[in-house]
Amino acid sequence: MKKNGTILLWLGGLALGIIAAKLGIKYAFAFSILLITPIALIMKPERGLNLLAAYAVIDFVFRTRGGILSGIWDELLFILMIGVFFVHLLINGKGFPVRLTELDVPIFVFFGISIFLLLVNSPELHVAVEGIRVILQYILWYFVAINIIKDRSVVRKLLLVLIVIAVLLSLHGIYQYIIGVEIPTTWYDSKHETSMRTRVFSIIGSPNILGSLLVLALPITLSFVLNERGWLRKLVYLGSMGVMALCLVFTFSRGAWLAFALSAVIYTLLKDKRLIIPMVLGAAVLLIAVPQIGDRIAYMISPEYMLSSARGGRIARWSAAIEAVKTSPIFGVGLGRYGGAVAMRYIPGSFYADNFYLKTMAEMGIIGLTGFLYLLYRGCIESLRTIRGLKDPKLYNMAVGIFTGLIGILAQNAVENVFEVPMMATYFWLLVAVILSLRYIEAEPQCEVK
């Protein structure tokens, strides 16, 4: 075995040398990545999930340097992971075991509804195909992850990668606040919010989406604080939380703030109700220390904001979405035709609905929204059942942290199209799989075989 490995290493080096000599270092490097990645994933498929946890950074690299791969790298990774999964199983002689979960049926029901609507209500097929891809593609990561996560070390490494990414983005965001990075005037009301210097967005490009990522990462990091025994590591994770929280403040994303507040309340209810008092005190101190927070929230409930929003802001977009629903309440106006990125590309005069649930209802009607909400409801119920059934305190802390972060994302979707962002949709379904995998990790045997 060792001799064969040495021969392969020499042959690989020879091939890289020839490519470098004929085509250049750039192509040799690309070839080495294409060669090494499948081998590394076949040896340890969970490495693919770690890559997925680093989605924010990898996607930024591909968007800025990836050329033709910039928009398809995650699809290629998905296809590669599917292939690697089956190759890995064949190599190990385990046949084709499939982990069955209670979320499978709701997912297939929603997929069925979506395909039905594609077939019966697609004025422009290419728009509908793109619309259904945006909705369904990232849910498929759930099936990949639930079948690859086999032990707690995989979960821990995956979550650590996510925490590290969130900390790095937060540090960059804080740097942006310090230097007063320039932002579009449409990101705030310069007439009324005169105290606002800037809003941070790091490499994400949007303060609201950066905020949603931090809403997801903060309670997960808290679970690491609780799970660590050594004070040094506890302090490191506490410091990480401080950096993330500060960056969350500097996004000045009201939707993210409210989502985090809801997430924090649910965390205290699941973990320790006595935490509510220090949480309220901490919020009060924050309002005093950073008066811009109070100013921005106060402006949100002011008559001036309501009037401005009704003219051309969120309230106006929500009202328009409701009118769109009225035109076709049962089946919707068609996949990809309203309130999102696909509509912005193909339908003149389109705009973001700033409410993913209204967008879904406008495009897919009551039928589609019902299927989607049922899927989310079952995901929440099964997550809570997993949490209540866990006996291991460390796994319990992880599950509570992940669940409350996911609830924050669901809440923010009421004021933002968070699920339209591939990074956030991927993180969401990846972490749903992580929660449900914890029940198999704790129990023996670990998975049901089909």
Automatic annotation (TrEMBL):
Subcellular location: Membrane
One Pfam family this sequence matches: Wzy_C
Keywords from the named record: Membrane, Transmembrane, Transmembrane helix
Membrane topology, from the record: Multi-pass membrane protein
GO annotations of cellular component type: membrane
Residue stretches spanning the membrane: 27-43, 72-91, 103-120, 132-149, 158-180, 200-224, 236-269, 275-294, 315-336, 356-375, 395-415, 421-441
Residue ranges of domain O-antigen ligase-related in the record: 242-373
Domain of life: Bacteria
InterPro entries per the UniProt record, alphabetical: O-antigen_ligase-rel_domated, WaaL-like
Chief localization: membrane
PANTHER family, per the entry: LIPOPOLYSACCHARIDE BIOSYNTHESIS PROTEIN PA4999-RELATED (PTHR37422:SF13), TEICHURONIC ACID BIOSYNTHESIS PROTEIN TUAE (PTHR37422)
Protein name as it appears in the record: O-antigen ligase-related domain-containing protein
Originating organism: Geosporobacter ferrireducens
